[in-house]
């Protein structure tokens, strides 16, 4: 009986976030799909598509930093993506653990065909977490990145 109780206590002491973080698909579905849709296609004029874009944006160090910064800080203001205008607000996801944010971003970077990409690390997210940026300032960051490396 004592052994079972000890085993149960050990299982309860393992952080739930670590078990969940390995599944970027589930994390995306529960945190992002209500706006960006379950397949990442978005809604033109309302919520930008992520499918086929995040991996391309993250192909440069500056792009990878930008994607992580958007996930952590959100974005607010007018942007144009693939000819569609968006003037909305994406909330920050700082409440998620670093491994969860990395898992979501790797899932999205692998869309549409998967498997999840291995672009974003926990260290990338942890480093960006220390550089808080206002959601409205992310629009300027996007414009600067687009001038440096045209965004898809």
From TrEMBL:
Residues 1-21 form the signal peptide. Keywords: Heme, Iron, Metal-binding, Signal. Residues 19-112 form the Cytochrome c domain. It comes from the Bacteria. Pfam families: Cytochrom_C. This is Cytochrome c.
């Amino acid at each position: 009986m004592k052994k079972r109780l000890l085993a149960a206590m050990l299982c309860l002491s393992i952080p739930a976030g670590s078990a969940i973080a390995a599944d970027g698909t589930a994390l995306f579905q529960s945190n992002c799909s209500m706006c960006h849709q379950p397949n990442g296609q978005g809604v033109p004029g309302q919520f930008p598509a992520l499918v086929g874009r995040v991996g391309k944006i993250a192909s440069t160090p500056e792009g990878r930093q930008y994607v992580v910064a958007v996930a952590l800080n959100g974005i607010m203001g007018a942007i144009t993506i693939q000819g569609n205008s968006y003037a909305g607000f994406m909330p920050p996801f700082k409440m998620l653990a670093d491994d969860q944010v990395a898992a979501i971003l790797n899932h999205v970077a692998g869309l549409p065909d998967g498997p999840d990409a291995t672009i974003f690390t926990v260290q990338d997210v942890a480093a960006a977490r220390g550089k808080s940026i206002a959601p409205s300032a992310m629009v300027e960051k996007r414009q600067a990145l687009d001038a440096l490396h045209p965004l898809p």
